[in-house]
Design goal:
Elements: H1 2-26, H2 28-34, H3 37-80, H4 86-90, H5 99-126, E1 131-135, E2 141-144, H6 146-152, H7 156-159, E3 173-175, E4 178-190, E5 193-205, E6 211-220, H8 222-271, H9 277-307, E7 316-318, H10 320-338, E8 340-346, E9 354-356, H11 358-374, E10 379-388, E11 396-405, H12 412-416, H13 427-433, H14 439-449, E12 454-459, E13 463-473
Helix pairs in contact: 1-3, 3-5, 8-9, 9-14, 10-11, 11-14
The structure holds adenosine-5'-diphosphate and magnesium ion.
Length: 480
């Protein structure tokens, strides 16, 4: 409003000056009267017009600038003051006041508001337990909070200008995918001894995106570090205890195996001597018990050897067919006794000789066929062998063995629990058939060591099929 009035006055003044000038210049009698003063008065009037116009233009430009500043001030005030000053701000329309005075008040309010905001942020920063500081790219400190001062037991004035103490000694990692922030851990000596700090360092940029400062926040992680050390020690101790247990098992089972072999061997010799029926029955019982015991001990020995990583695979040529025949021969007497049929089905493309560890293959087969015979009351236990197509051009081939039985089978819940140590599908089977529950775990580990996999399909009441693959060196195809 005041502005419009000012414009009218300026234009009226300019108008009357121009009118006076034109009267002097255009009317001859006025010019004659003035005589030689005519030039001086005209020039003075032109000078006045120019002066008034330039003053007016200068005023307008300054006003525009001041207005922009006022708008900025308003924006800053409402941003920084969390809206708390809204009543003040609304009253600042300054209608009817001189605009410049209004703007000056606005700026003054902005300064007060910024002071309040600054004080509240400073309070928050000062009350932190974390060390907070800012430093220049040359590591000179330009701000430290109270926690920083207390940590080093130094005055703020002593610390400012000194180098930042938390310069990274370990690898810096990105902080929360933020490209401007990094984190690292550091063991640092403070006034109260050594402390572990985790630093988060953030780059502070200027408007041209250059780094002008760094902000660092150090959090005390000593308790966590100590807990990690304790945990690591406990883990080492547990691993050592586990190793000791494995070694103990290996030694004990090895030591037990020798006398049992003696018992079985002498029972066999005894059964070849002259015995009456009762004595023969007792000797057979001794032999069978010895055999079961030997199985158990062998399972435990193998398991502890695998656990201790002490199994090394052989790489010798062998015949998979012969291996299967040996396993069938091993179970034949037991199968005949329980009225089971043992069967083999070997695909013609399987090579006569392959390269690998026949002893471990036999062990897997004995475990799986042993289970099949144990859990099948009537029907057939069969070993199938096929060769799988292999994609790469290497000389290695994959053999797939399947042990199919018509036994008790297992439910899907029972199947889901298999292949873990000490797990037996049904608690009652432990009492009925004995066993350690280690066999399938041993089979799984051995097949994996031989580059294969083991799996099972089972139907309650219908039977189970345990299948496994092993990777072997390709041999010669002697017979079809
Ligand atoms: N062919 C099978 N038919 C039915 N159940 C089986 C068969 N093979 C294994 N199982 C189940 O899996 C369990 C674990 O087998 P295994 O690891 O060899 O231990 P173990 O023979 O010492 O019991 C057995 O106790 C049995 O319950
Ligand atoms: Mg078994």
């Amino acid at each position: 409003m005041g502005n419009l009035r000012k414009s009218w006055m300026v234009w009226a003044l300019v108008g009357s000056l121009v009118a006076a000038l034109s009267a002097i210049v255009l009317q001859d009698d006025v010019r004659e009267k003035l005589g030689s003063n005519y030039y001086i008065i005209s020039l003075a009037i032109i000078g006045c017009v120019l002066l008034v116009l330039s003053g007016y233009l200068w005023d307008v430009t300054i006003l525009q600038r001041v207005r922009a500043l006022g708008n900025q001030a308003k924006a800053v005030q409402s941003e920084d003051d969390y809206g708390a000053l809204s009543a003040d701000t609304v009253a600042s329309e300054d209608i009817g006041h001189d605009e410049i005075i209004g703007l000056a008040r606005q700026i003054e309010r902005m300064a007060r508001s910024l002071q309040r905001v600054e004080a509240s942020y400073r309070g928050i920063v000062e009350d932190q337990f974390d060390l907070i500081c800012r430093y220049r790219p040359d590591f000179t400190l330009i701000f430290v909070n109270g926690a920083y001062c207390r940590f080093f037991a130094r005055k703020r004035t002593e610390l400012l200008g000194q180098p930042f103490s938390g310069q990274a000694t370990s690898e810096r990692l990105p902080w929360k995918d933020d490209p401007a922030a990094q984190t690292y851990e550091q063991e640092i000596k403070g006034a109260n001894g050594t402390t572990w700090l985790q630093w988060i360092v953030r780059e502070i940029h200027d408007e041209n995106h250059g780094v002008v400062e760094y902000q660092a926040v150090g959090h005390d992680i000593t308790a966590r570090k100590m807990a990690e050390v304790v945990l690591l020690r406990a883990k080492d101790a547990a691993e050592a205890a586990n190793r000791a247990k494995g070694e103990f098992f290996a030694i004990v089972s090895h030591e037990i195996r020798n006398p049992i072999s003696g018992v079985i061997g002498f029972a066999e010799i005894l059964s070849d001597t002259k015995l009456d029926a009762e004595q023969r029955e007792y000797v057979t019982l001794i032999r069978n018990s010895g055999d079961s015991l030997l199985f158990l001990i062998n399972d435990i020995l193998d398991f502890s050897k695998i656990e201790a990583g002490k199994i090394e695979l052989e790489n010798e040529p062998y015949s998979p067919r012969t291996c299967i025949q040996e396993v069938i021969a091993f179970f034949a007497p037991k199968a005949t006794l329980s009225g089971l049929t043992l069967d083999t089905l070997i695909s013609p493309e399987v090579p006569e000789t392959v390269v690998g560890d026949v002893y471990r293959l036999r062990q897997i087969l004995i475990n799986l066929v042993g289970n099949a015979v144990k859990f099948t009351r009537a029907g057939t236990v069969a070993i199938h062998l096929t060769q799988l197509p292999i994609s790469d051009n290497s000389a290695a081939i994959d053999l797939k063995f399947s042990i199919v039985d018509t036994g008790s089978g297992m439910s899907s819940e029972q199947v889901a629990r298999l292949f873990r140590p000490y797990v037996q599908a049904e608690a009652s089977t432990t009492r009925k058939f004995g066993g350690t529950g280690l066999g399938l775990d041993i089979c799984k580990r051995l097949t994996e060591m031989m580059g294969g996999k083991i799996s099972v399909e089972s139907d309650v009441g219908k039977g189970s099929t345990f299948s496994f693959t092993i990777r072997v060196g390709g041999g010669r195809q002697l017979s079809a």
